[in-house]
């Protein structure tokens, strides 16, 4: 029997589709589990619900897709866009990638990222970009296997609610 990631041409073991508001509860649960698995975070459920619901607001703040096997959702991926004034095109930033534990190791994430790459190409994206927690070696290996490479940028973060150390004189 073939491994699911080695399916015969023309046959698809899974279905990749845009997420709908009906998928909200599943996406919230996936996001909470992803935060815990990737960074050991216990996320605030109300924040996660508001964050995921942003994909279904008008205008949408993100786009989400799900992977189904039969009727079950087994994976999800979401993106936000960043306009590049250098290139006059969007960068698609992958915000989340999640595969249910029982579907891991079967090629789902590779297949899903391949479908996302097709969506990005069709949508005119300049780049697909993502960031991974430095300690999450497993995720970094998956992304590198999918063709991603470390960028020449360093991500900085600033919490605007924290006062500066030294006020300007």
Number of strands: 5
List the uncertain runs: 1-9
Taking all residues together, what is the mean pLDDT? 91
Helix count from the secondary structure assignment = 4
Q: What is the helix fraction of residues, given as a range?
A: 25-40%
Taking all Cα atoms into account, the compactness measure Rg is 18 Å
Shape: globular
Strand order of the largest sheet: 1-2-3-4-5
**Helix/strand order, N-terminal first:** EHHEEEHEH
> CATH homologous superfamily?
Gcn5-related N-acetyltransferase (GNAT)
Which structural class matches the secondary elements? alpha+beta
Tally of distinct domains = 1
Biggest sheet character: 5 strands, mixed
Query: Termini distance?
Result: 71 Å
What's the CATH C level? Alpha Beta
- CATH overall fold name: Aminopeptidase
Per CATH, which architecture?
Answer: 3-Layer(aba) Sandwich
Percent in strands: 15-25%
Describe the fold and architecture.
- With 169 residues, this protein is α+β, with helices and mostly antiparallel strands.
- It has a single domain (12-145), classed as Aminopeptidase, CATH 3.40.630.
- Helices cover 29% and strands 23% of the residues.
- A hairpin with a 2-residue loop joins strand 2 (63-69) and strand 3 (72-84).
- It is globular, with a radius of gyration of 18 Å.
- The N and C termini lie far apart (71 Å).
